[in-house]
Design a protein that fits this description.
about 140 residues, alpha+beta, four-stranded antiparallel beta sheet, three-stranded antiparallel beta sheet, 3 helices, binds zinc ion
Amino acid sequence: MKVLTATASGATRHDDFCHAVEGEIVLPSWVVCDSRTCGCDRAFGGLNSHRATTTIMVRDLELTVEDLTTATFGYLESAGWAELLRADADAGDSTDPVAAYALELLVPTLVLAAQLDPGTIIRVAYNRRADAWEYALAS
Ligand SMILES: [Zn+2]
């Protein structure tokens, strides 16, 4: 299925960066800070490297939604976010807060990737007023 991945290709702007590993799955940042120069509001992070990229390529990979959910779950565990999600969860709620958040992060990226052709390179930007990620074609 089509997924969003890190790429250094298309990093043509002076403020582009790709610290992630080429080809790894990327997701939106958990936290976007208030700094206008940090870059977290215009980058997605790699599931394995935990490093960010401003340029993102759509790739068609032999992965299922279940594979990607498992990978996202692992990312949240290894990044330490899972522990915070569990600590913040309502005791009476039987929903796994980590699994729920994994889907919350993952599904919008899959919906976006599904609409684009493999090889397409995009940039993302967090719209603070709309509290939403937006994208634009990079190439
Ligand atoms: Zn930041």
